[in-house]
């Protein structure tokens, strides 16, 4: 696909708030999109997303987690935030080894970290 088509599609995805499609396109075409001449063609929102992805690529903690693990951490955060505590507790016990990892702790909200700590303490 030509870079002009990629830029056009990427800008459209960002306008329509289809961020997952935009993210996957950026990751797929990373080398071409980050070239200075091509980067200048991107809209403001697309440029910001490229910056976020670049920062993520530099962060070692971010790289160590798989997409599935990131989804599980976000799911636990959402369950605690929405006060679905029985479901959150079930998630915690099913994936306890994940929540014990130091780099996974950075993905948890303070409320979620507190709840995980409380559930760990009740085991003893």
Structure, explained:
- The chain is an all-alpha fold and 124 residues long.
- The protein has 2 domains: 3-58, no CATH class; 67-123, no CATH class.
- Helix content is 80%, strand content 0%.
- It has helices at residues 3-15, 19-28, 30-33, 36-40, 44-58, 60-64, 67-81, 85-94, 96-99, 102-105, 110-123.
- The protein is elongated.
Radius of gyration, Cα only, in angstroms?
18 Å
Q: Indicate the proportion of strand residues.
A: under 5%
Shape: elongated
Instruction: Give me the count of strands.
Output: 0
What is the typical, i.e. mean, pLDDT?
87
| Number of separate helices | 11
Low-confidence residue ranges? none
Helix content: over 70%
The total number of structural domains is 2
N-to-C span: 58 Å
Describe the structure concisely.
This protein is mainly α. The chain contains 11 helices and no strands.
List keywords for this structure.
124 residues, 2 domains, mainly alpha, 11 helices
List the helices and strands and how they pair.
Elements: H1 3-15, H2 19-28, H3 30-33, H4 36-40, H5 44-58, H6 60-64, H7 67-81, H8 85-94, H9 96-99, H10 102-105, H11 110-123
Helix pairs in contact: 1-2, 2-5, 7-8
